[in-house]
Amino acid sequence: MWTRYILLPVVAIVLLSIPFFQPRDVQTALTSAVAFAIAAIGLTILVGVGGQLSLAHGVFVAVGAYGYIVLAGEPGVEDRWGLGLPPVLAAIGGVALAALLGLIFSPVAARLKGLYLGMASLALIFISEYVFTYVTPLTGGLQGRSVQQFDLFGIPLSGSTPKLEILGANIDGIARLWFIAVIALFLAVWIGLRIVRGRPGQALQLVRDNPTAAAAIGVNVQHAKAEAFVVSSAYAGVGGVFVALYSQVLTPETFNIVFSINFLAMIIIGGLGSIGGAVFGGAFVALLAFTMNKLGGTPLLPFIDQTGLNGIPGGTFSTIVFGVIVVLILVFEPTGGAGIVRRIRSRRAKPSPVAPPQQSHDTDSRGAVPEKTR
Amino acid sequence: MNVLQVFLTGLSLSAIYALLAVGFVVIYKGTKVVNLAQGAVMMIGVYVVFKLNTGLDFWIVALIGIAVGAAAAVIIQLILSLSKSHDHLVATIITIAIDMIVTAILLVEMRDLMLYIPGPWADAVIQIGGAAMPVARVAAFATAILAIGAFFVVFRYTTFGVRMRAAASDPETAALMGVSGRSVALWSWGIGGGLAVIAGIFLAGFPGAGLPAFGSALAFAVIPAIIIGGMDSAEGAIIGALIVGFTESVSRYLVAAYAPWMGEQIAIVVPYVIMLIVLLVRPSGLFGSREISRV
Q1: Given A240, B7, B73, B175, which is the most exposed site by the fewest CB atoms within 10 A?
Q2: Domain for residue B108, yes or no?
């Protein structure tokens, strides 16, 4: 209980005060951390709770980002598509588009199992990579596309006008966006916890663990799976809108395959199926490269160089670091590995009248058999 | 560009894809893991060949590269076997992470360097009925038939092949009969890794411009082939490779001739679209066993 009444306000105050003592680049990095954290919550609901492996979460983030850009974009500038909607509506629209793509893909997801679903989601990555690069009216092609500033009923919330100074700190652009991001994060966590701990989450877990039983007590299995996909994509869409807003100019190469796979790394590092874990993992992955570039060249990390000319770029090195962390967690952390086994496998394991569950488990783990028999 | 040219290009692409695809399938049959680090294994082998390919005999260098790739794959399997979970989905995710690590290291090591391996055939081209065919691609086709043919002979007619098939179809019984699942796993990873490097050597040569540091992503082009064919069917992998190779060649030709505005990259995307359609109709591929969907 004390966490709710003391810790939560303290965390909120610390987070909201960041623009008063941290420079702009830190604010931008932290905003990206919030964007990734929100999107990672969606993936952990899908993979961790729902047991559906998706390697393409970044695609839904990208749809949210480009959805916002196109809906809010000025119409008729060069040959770019733009509807010129108010940014608030554009943000909602971006999230809706991401959720819609999730809805469209969910029949594929409901039909496929385990690895086949993972491989099918790879298709989304490559198809979207093509669309983002070649449909230039949408994304601006390789040069990228600038992002319309966010405002609320005409009050600019991510620009620098009108000038706003509080306690000597210039609260402009990214600082205002940071405040919105923190509020969005708290909302995202709250809703996520309600989904996971409430009835939808329980239904989803039952679907994952025993689809037959779930159907027997009146849970619509296909619906539950599709809902998990839609909710997860909507979270990704919210993350995507923030990615667009803090990036200001967005290029398609942001959303490459590594971007998508990073989300898997986030939820594994954080601990699969846990909302708090997803937030931690998202922030960790987002901030690691930034921190390393900051510390690069100092005696602490002399081999890091942002430009890559005199050392390893921070981004590349952090990829190595969290790649290694993911391998170590999955190899040596039994609950981490077991969690994934439980969550992804159990939705596929049907109780067989012939073989007891234990035996079917052994049949699948080829590596385990000889060690046991020896 | 004529029909024969499109056909020959498709055939030679299919040969390289078949090498990669059979590599994936051998590993999948042996351990039920989709090794998404196949591209990384390929890059490690190709990098070794590239570094040693200065004066030494090409064939010796190629053999060393293939052996290093096989060893790299075996090391990955050893890492996976340390895992407490013994779950093939966890293992597959570990291979993604390994692919990320190797690619990042190669980026640091290579930067803008392209791994170009001319091979003894260099950029020679022969004319077949008005179509130009790089000798390197003819060699790739011949090598693919030899390597995959040898694999099928071993798989069908040797004691080792029997052990592999036994372990793949019923590991418990096979283990009781004295077949070491561990050695079958290591051998299948070694063979799969070696096949990937053979394909990589051809991908790194003419008519390509060489492999960049992130070349491991090329192995993903084969994913539609193994999914369309069914992940545990070597014959399916070859048919999948043919479908992907010809689809890529035909769509490249059609796009260049009639719709250049679509961009060449569409040729990479089309096989994935076909894969999604196949998956909707047959969730475990054309030749994949139903058992997988039950697991």
Answers
A1: B7
A2: yes
Average pLDDT over residues B200-217: 91
Is residue B218, in this structure, part of any structural domain at all? no
Cβ–Cβ of B279/A120 closer than 8 Å? Answer: yes
Q: How far is A303 from chain B (nearest CA, A)?
A: 11
- Prediction ipTM score: 0.90
| DSSP string for residues in A225-277 | HHHHHHHHHHHHHHHHHHHHHHHSEE-GGGGSHHHHHHHHHHHHHH-TT-HHH
pTM metric for this prediction: 0.88
Judge whether B285 lies within some domain: no
- Residue A141, token pair as written in the block: 């092609």
| Residue percentage of chain B with pLDDT more than 70 | 97
pLDDT > 70 in chain A, percent: 82
* Containing structural domain, residue A98: 24-256
Separation of alpha carbons A131 and A366, rounded Å: 40
Write the pLDDT tens digit of every residue in B135-147. 999 999 999 999 9
Q: How far is B150 from chain A (nearest CA, A)?
A: 25
**How far is the C-alpha of A24 from the C-alpha of A124, rounded, in Å?**
34
Residues of A in contact with B93 (CB under 8 A): 264, 268, 326, 330, 340
Across the interface, of B93, B276, B279, the residue whose CB is closest to A330 is: B93
pLDDT tens-digit map of A297-318? 777 778 887 776 777 888 889 8
B132 DSSP β-pair partners: B127
- What range defines the domain where residue B11 resides? 3-209
Taking a C-beta distance cutoff of 8 angstroms, is the pair A31, A181 a contact?
yes
Residue B43 distance to chain A (closest CA, Å):
16
